[in-house]
Amino acid sequence: MLRLEHSWSWLALALAVLLGAKPSACGPPPGPRPNILLLMADDLGIGDVGCYGNTTIRTPNIDRLAADGVRLTQHLAAAPLCTPSRAAFLTGRYPLRSGMVSSQGLRVLQWTAVSGGLPPSEITFAKILKAKGYTTGLIGKWHLGLSCASPDDHCHHPLNHGFDHFYGMPFSMMADCERWELSEKRAVLESRLDVCFQLVALATLTLTIGKLTHLIPGASWTLVIWSAVVCLLLFATSCLVGALIMHADCFLMRNHSIAEQPMRSQRTTPLMLQEVSSFVKRHKQGPFLLFVSFLHVHTPLVTTENFRGRSPHGLYGDNTEEMDWMVGQILETLDTEGLTNSTLVYFTSDHGGSLEARFGNNQYGGWNGIYKGGKGMAGWEGGIRVPGIFRWPGVLTAGRVIHEPTSLMDIFPTVVHLAGGQVPQDRVVDGRDLLALLQGTARHSDHEFLMHYCESFLHAARWHQRDRGAVWKVHFTTPIFQPDGAGACYGQIVCPCSGNRVTHHAPPLLFDLSRDPSEAHALTPDTEPSFHQVVETVARAVAAHRQTLIPVPLQLDAADNTWKPWLQPCCGRFPFCWCDRDADPR
């Protein structure tokens, strides 16, 4: 009966269009509310996908999604790194508004056991859709915090932000989950511990010699023994720090319980697909919201044997092709359950590909096509321009391409609107409803200006001058690439946002993205007659934007972003955290 009702609703809509009626831009399309499936890749470059110009990495399923739907070419992340970008995606607000940024260089949440995270006071689209009768689920990566004061208060947990079901990593996939050749934390910690070990060992040796030769008055064997104990502890910790990180951060949860600690990465892909299939089948009577947050294509690029060695782009290409296959499996589940026509599907990445993810001659990060920069760079297009694909058969015209500026923050008001909900009126929401633009009843995006933050620092701003068809980008600050002439900050994980490794521009750099999307040629007053007018217009917009900002605690600063052992989730007695409940019979 439900499928029959869906069929009549789409038939009625099609007849209305044929008779010349235009869908209302003020309300959702007629008929039952759609299921909503949101697919987000991790660290995928816009140039890694076939429908965005790649001819060597095979992404047939994502390409088919674009051919059957609407493709956005100027779709932008609100931040160039995962934690702030995902916070903006879920709330429709610049991450600075929720405090999901840092002013101290701690660009993302550093550990699972930190007290920072998406504040419970923030309203996610999942909270609103749940209140409107949707069943809501998140499968995959979270990386927006877990607990505040105790290991099980779960104040930042997905289930405290509107999701009915969660299966995945509360933290993030990272190279340290596999003790890989690249490292986010292990290598730095090992280096620091080694230095401390050497200093304490030297002190222990000095005290011992001083005691034996009587050259150090007051030296006691007690002090020597304690120094030796500290030395041994530092040495042991240095040897074990990799395993400790894997247990501390690389684990899976099912709702509020730890399912696997540490996780066995090779079997995570089939487990995630199984969870997606199970969720869809359980809730196919709808409506449901399912957010599939892939662990692909972040390092360590865990790829199953079926896909290893298939791509000419090495392990990164293999991992991308496996993620595309996963997209295909998920779409096939919709087909099998008869949900394709009643489900809005959206695909994107949280930010641009990582240029610095390389070791020796091997590149383990993505490609951002013609766009300058990459992950971590808030101003340059390569850090923030991402795929944006929508498919909703019978409602969105297949094969449409839209070149207007849009944002990941726009998903919030769009899905809230489709669910029959209301955007909160007690706070600033920066996203704009995309439905009219996607349906073709609006010519332009509602974004006239977009701000591009790096941590809490505004690096650039964009102005869509509709009457001229121009998109201007003004850069106030840019990172200094290393080495000179490179297009990234090699030797670092990402480029910095502040300090002596950035350049502040006065006057700012100006680019016309409608003519120079690669940002290769900065304009000057001599080459662009409108230079001063554009810069002054953007400066006024920035000043107006700053008037809307309300100071809030910064969740990623050190006070809330340092490992706290009393917050460490553990399915055994700490530090012996080990379990595999997914393998247990249920």
From TrEMBL:
This is Arylsulfatase L isoform X1. Its cofactor is Ca(2+). The keyword Magnesium does not apply. Residues 1-26 form the signal peptide. The gene is ARSL. Residues 34-420 form the Sulfatase N-terminal domain. Pfam families: Sulfatase, Sulfatase_C. Coiled coil: none annotated. SUPFAM superfamilies: Alkaline phosphatase-like. The keyword Ribosomal protein does not apply. Belongs to the sulfatase family. It comes from Bos indicus. Keywords: Calcium, Hydrolase, Membrane, Metal-binding, Signal, Transmembrane, Transmembrane helix. The chain crosses the membrane at residues 223-246.
